[in-house]
Amino acid sequence: MKTSFVLATAVGLASAFPGMAGINMKEEGMKMLKERHDAEQQEKRQLGDVLDGVGDLVGGLLDDVKGLLGSVASAVDPDNKRPEPGYEFQAPKKGDSRGPCPALNTLANHGYLPRDGYVSFDQILEATARGFNMGADLATVLGVFTTLTDANITEQSWYLGSSPEHLGGLNRHDTVEADISPNREDYYLGCGDNHHLSSRLFKQNVALAAQNPSKEFDFETMGNQFAMNADFSLKNNPFIYYFPFPSIVSVVAYNFYPQFFSNGTFGAGGVANYESISSILGAKLNKKTGEFQYVPERFPDNWYRRATPYGAVQALTEGFTGIYPYNPVPMPIPQIGTDNFSPQTLLCDIYNGINSITPLALGGALEQTGDTISWAVQKLIDVGLDATTLGCPKNSISPNFKLYPNKKQKGGPLRLPRSQYRWTGSNKYNRVYFTEAPTQPMCKHVSKP
Ligand code: HEM
Predict the structure, then answer these.
(1) pLDDT tens readout for residues 92-106
(2) How far apart are CA 222 and CA 116, in angstroms?
(3) Domain that holds residue 8
């Protein structure tokens, strides 16, 4: 079953990107995926051994971390050094909002975004380009979807974590935030905590980097992290959520590790090393306990952003060729496994998705719905992602302005169980989260450093 799915994906990708990076995807891609599948069970057993050894032994983890240090980027342009003068690190103050995105948290901690963590669409576009060289189309797609689902629409602004009332913001599950994240637990299994760095997941990630000959957080390491996280979620989370848009974000977030967090340009002398990743992720090893404390995210010393923009098409291509085939979790994206699967059809799905969702802040006015959707579509057109260029049919939306009719009922979004409500607020740092794997909802999962 899995083999045929992998092969079907390979066929689709092969036809979709015939000349990608000079590789004949049809033959080499199929062969690569088949070999990978054949080695899968064997590989997983080996990974299990590595993790058993590393997870339990502090000494082993220390050795791994030491083995991952020391590489420096080559061929960097001094103009790309970050942070620039005037953008010094400051830890977030009480009340500042931070959430699941390590990059946006880093940008806020350095003042590229407002330090209180309430950010606007335009600020996001500028800061993600300046801090990390994210392409305008990719930042626009992310920003538009977030504005529609997590934001105060009239201000086109949102919280990096959640609002003081624990509403909206990037912490909001099932919108942009999804399950099977690289280093955050699933919303359900984490008892609503989908945004703090999980110590046990990062230990797994470090172990995978350590057993990779490159010793980097490259595509192989992150693909294996995806494979293991997907297995875990499929096995343990009965409410796993893999709706197209957030699931696409969750897949491409794995390639963001090498492509954005490397010191220098990945693939052109840049290195996805432990110093860079752990600093931007806010992971600080406690050498006594062997656990990772979650500390405020920051640019590492002597760090250079990538030199060229990384945009939507490359991100989708690499996510679905370099990460997803490691463990293709079924997604309700109809083109997967067919000849029609390509970055364009994925972008078209996203475009249609934007037309089909109801904005979070819909207070009631039909007019406001129309205005908001027009705003979103116009933003996409501005970066060349309109329906015509993507080949999507023009779409229309049926307004639904009673999003949560029973929102104040027990269990509704404004009356969550107390244990879960606690975890939906913005990040709290200098603690350790999830030393154990949550095989069922784990509400007690925080310890002192
Ligand atoms: C442009 C606006 C952005 C928005 C709205 C956004 C939003 C998010 C959200 C909601 C998540 C959680 C996803 C999940 O549950 O798996 C996330 C995770 C992530 N984001 Fe962003 N993000 C943005 C920009 C960036 C940029 C510029 C980078 C890299 C430089 C980045 C890197 C990541 C990574 C690596 C994760 C995964 C974290 C983990 O679980 O390990 N994001 N982002």
Answers:
(1) 999 999 999 999 999
(2) 31
(3) 1-38
